[in-house]
Design goal:
Elements lengths: L6 H4 L1 E7 L2 E13 L2 E6 L1 H5 L18 E8 L6 E7 L22 E4 L6 E2 L19 E6 L12 E7 L12 E5 L10 E6 L2 E4 L5 E4 L3 E11 L6 E6 H10 L2
Length: 250
């Protein structure tokens, strides 16, 4: 697997199911929490409902009670293993965890992972998100996921490239989100959004010029969908908000 960029295998293909019946596909990634590995994805993926209207997203009107995750195989990068996780308990209560203060208003959740036999965990770090190079309006970023369920060789993710479309540290609509300009589509919900820089130089947050001898990337947040069907403007919940969720899980 020489020459493979790490984010290509950090984003994981997921399939939402009801009693093993496929309903939809999406994207997720893993972070390490205090209690163990957590799968982070959009709330609308696990609820199966439009986050604004509450209407079912599947044409079958079904909502999921399971999620199938295509994980990297332990010790054998370049091979993958499917694992199924329940997302509702026996009383149909959610097994996922919502943001501690935003609750269901935040379109991302964390699901403690249990089915990890033969699984290699390659997590994102929500504390040390990457080199402190500056990312501002019009800078290039990538949405790393599975548009329309497409997988780029085995179960490696597809990189959709776009641009920062708003000030990343200024709340959009009073939520901890920023906008991106990217031709992202269904199936990419739950994708990690990163700023990838090849070896060379980049302006750092402190205004100094930094140099890199190898490609580097910075985790920016989780993609949540477009602002409407007519626009290529997409919503990204900030990495800092994801960290707040992860830190709240004891």
């Amino acid at each position: 697997m020489l020459g493979i960029s790490e984010p290509s295998v950090k984003s994981l293909f997921i399939e939402m199911r009801f009693n093993d019946q496929p309903l939809a596909t999406g994207t997720a990634f893993v972070v390490n929490g205090k209690t163990g590995p957590l799968l982070v994805t959009n709330r609308h993926n696990v609820t199966g409902r439009n986050p604004y209207t509450g209407e079912p997203l599947s044409s079958t009107a079904g909502v999921p009670n399971q999620i199938m995750v295509i994980h990297n195989r332990k010790g054998r990068l370049g091979e993958w293993v499917p694992r199924v996780e329940p997302i509702l308990d026996s009383e149909e209560k959610p097994l996922w965890v919502e943001h501690p203060t935003l609750g269901g208003n935040a379109d991302f959740v964390a699901l403690p992972l249990k089915a990890l036999d033969d699984v290699e965990i390659i997590p994102y770090d929500v504390v040390n998100t990457g080199p402190k190079f500056n990312v501002g309006p019009a800078d290039i970023l990538s949405v790393v996921g599975f548009p329309f369920g497409l997988q780029a060789g085995g179960s490696m993710a597809v990189w959709a490239t776009g641009f920062m479309a708003s000030e990343p540290d200024v709340d959009f609509n009073n939520w901890p989100v920023f906008l991106i300009d990217c031709r992202s589509r269904q199936g990419q919900s739950g994708s990690a959004v990163i700023a990838h820089r090849a070896e060379g130089t980049a302006m750092m947050i402190d205004g100094e010029l930094g140099s890199f001898t190898n490609p580097v990337y910075k985790f920016l947040g989780i993609y949540s969908g477009r602002i409407n069907r007519e626009s290529d403007l997409g919503i990204v919940w900030r990495a800092s908000a994801v960290r707040e969720l992860v830190d709240s899980i004891q």
